[in-house]
Write a structure and sequence with these properties.
309 residues, alpha/beta, 2 domains, 5-stranded antiparallel β-sheet, 25% helix
Length: 309
């Protein structure tokens, strides 16, 4: 099974490592492999440390950390050979790195097959003045982002925060923007539910993440979908979505799964594996702000993707 990648970017001192620390300390059963620039900045509680060897710090909760040195693709290959494999890989970039270069590397077809880039998270210091975002590097970091996390929000007043929000939205209108006090970012935005594990039949109602801002809603179908109709349906739902992810079989290509991703206002499709027996032919997980979408609305729109017959 592919291991999704979360790429964490942001300028020096923005709070990227605080976000990574929080993810590792609150993994909630996920095996996370964190590729970081500086081990010394990973301040995991002492009781979580299980051991260190070969440049890898192992945590007792199943997570690991390794240093971002040398060739990134070689580091990813080493992580993918570990047993057990991680559930997710988090890459923290240098504060002076242009993430577009890393994104291009991760688009390598061999890497994408085993470790697709799922989410780009840009951490922005909330005390940053809007004028500072004119910096070419900061603009590049923001323009790659699916999710923008505002750190240090307790250090800025409402007026300053509103001005920064306007500047960020101007640069990256499709991104979801959240406050990240003490590095906490809603997990539903970073780790959408793995549709490989969505049970059948459909969940009776929304499953809400720990955050009180977003909820996860699932849709399944026992029949394949029409790809053109699905594209129309996603177009109708897109203005209300923060994220979406799915696996489905199409009428046009029976016996073959397609992998669907929606993030940062962009929808992508990629070839998947063969359908497994005993699971729905289509499984899509939607993430939206609470109250913006309902199961009934999703059902009504998505059922139009099923051809009569």
């Amino acid at each position: 099974m592919p291991v999704p990648i979360l790429l964490v970017t942001g300028f020096l001192g923005a709070g990227k490592t605080t976000v990574v620390n929080h993810l590792l300390a609150h993994a909630a059963g996920r095996r996370i492999a964190a590729v970081v620039n500086d081990f010394g900045a990973i301040n995991i509680d002492a009781e979580l440390i299980a051991g260190a060897s070969d440049g890898v710090v192992s945590l007792s909760n199943g997570c690991i950390c390794c240093s971002l040195e040398g060739d990134l693709l070689r580091t990813l290959a080493i992580l993918l050979r570990r047993d057990p494999r991680p559930d997710f890989i988090v890459i923290e970039t240098s504060g002076v790195a242009d993430p577009s270069d890393i994104v291009r590397n991760l688009m390598d077809p061999v890497i994408w097959r085993d470790a697709p880039l799922e989410t780009v998270l840009c951490v922005v210091d909330a005390t940053t003045s809007p004028e500072t975002l004119n910096d070419a590097l900061l603009r590049s970091q923001l323009r790659t982002a699916d999710v923008v996390a505002l750190s240090k929000v307790d250090l800025v007043d409402a007026v300053g925060r509103a001005q920064l929000l306007d500047a960020v939205r101007t640069l990256r209108p499709a991104a979801v923007i959240v406050d990240a006090l003490h590095g906490e970012v809603p997990a539903a935005l970073l780790f959408p539910a793995d549709v490989q594990r969505v049970p059948a039949p459909r969940e009776p109602g929304p499953r809400r993440p720990a955050s009180d801002r977003f909820e996860t809603l699932s849709w399944t179908s026992e029949r394949p979908v029409s790809l053109p109709r699905l594209q129309q349906a996603i177009g109708r739902l897109a203005p209300k979505l923060a994220r979406a992810k799915g696996l489905f079989e199409t009428v046009q290509q029976p016996g073959r799964l397609m992998v669907f991703q929606f993030a940062g206002g962009r929808a992508t499709l990629a070839a998947g594996g063969e359908p497994a027996a005993g699971v729905p032919r289509a499984r899509i997980v939607f993430v939206a702000e609470i109250g913006v979408l309902s199961i009934a609305e999703i059902d009504r729109i998505m059922e139009e993707c099923i051809e009569a017959g």
